[in-house]
């Protein structure tokens, strides 16, 4: 397997994407239930990801979430080309074309990255779009034998 190029840490930019996703979710109290709930559903889904068909890249886990400071629902998904079959206990959904503020980080610097992306958004006049056909996304890259895995955080922004 080819080695993937590492992401430039804390690089901020705007990206536009849409996603077709199939995966599993968990809902837990926020913030007390996290990050434990996220780790739990990611591990559970990692063991089932082989069940998902038409996958764009099986080594990339996409984790949208919804949070209201009381509880959060967190997803562990794979991007698919088509949603022809949704395995038992999973959900399939599409996130529409959206502009996102994006920052690169690692699984060990996520907290710092959230602080930096919101600072960058404020400094550049961007405002987060809340729940209107949108949700923030964390993207994880499965990697073997590395101390820190690359992560991207996408925050939907108002047009």
Strand order of the largest sheet: 1-3-2-5-6-4
Helix tally equals 2
Rg on CA atoms, Å? 15 Å
Element-by-element helix/strand order: EHEEEHEE
The secondary-structure class comes to alpha+beta
Main sheet attributes: strand count, strand direction, barrel closure: 6 strands, antiparallel, barrel
Please tally the β strands and state the result: 6
Structural domain count: 1
Helix content: 10-25%
| Uncertain runs | none
| CATH architecture tag | Alpha-Beta Barrel
Named CATH topology:
Multidrug-efflux Transporter 1 Regulator Bmrr, Chain A
User: What is the top-level CATH class?
Assistant: Alpha Beta
Shape: globular
Tell me the β content: 35-45%
The whole-number mean of residue pLDDT values reads 94
Report how far apart the termini are: 39 Å
The CATH superfamily is known as Regulatory factor, effector binding domain
Task: Give structural attributes.
single chain, 2 helices, six-stranded antiparallel β-barrel, 16% helix, Multidrug-efflux Transporter 1 Regulator Bmrr, Chain A, 40% strand, 159 residues, alpha+beta, globular
């Amino acid at each position: 397997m080819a080695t993937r190029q590492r992401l430039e840490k804390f690089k901020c930019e705007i990206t536009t994407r849409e996603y077709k996703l199939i995966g599993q979710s968990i809902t837990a109290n926020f913030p007390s239930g996290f990050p434990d709930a996220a780790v739990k559903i990611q591990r559970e889904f990692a063991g089932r990801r082989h069940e998902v068909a038409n996958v764009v890249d099986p080594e990339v886990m996409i984790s949208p979430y919804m949070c209201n400071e009381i509880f959060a629902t967190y997803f562990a998904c794979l991007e698919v080309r088509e949603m022809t079959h949704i395995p038992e206990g999973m959900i399939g959904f599409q996130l529409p074309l959206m502009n996102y503020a994006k920052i690169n980080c690692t699984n060990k610097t996520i907290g710092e990255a959230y602080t930096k992306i919101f600072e960058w958004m404020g400094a550049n006049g961007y405002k987060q779009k809340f729940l209107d056909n949108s949700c923030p996304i964390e993207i994880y890259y499965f990697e073997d034998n590395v101390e820190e895995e690359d992560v991207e955080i996408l925050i939907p922004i108002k047009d």
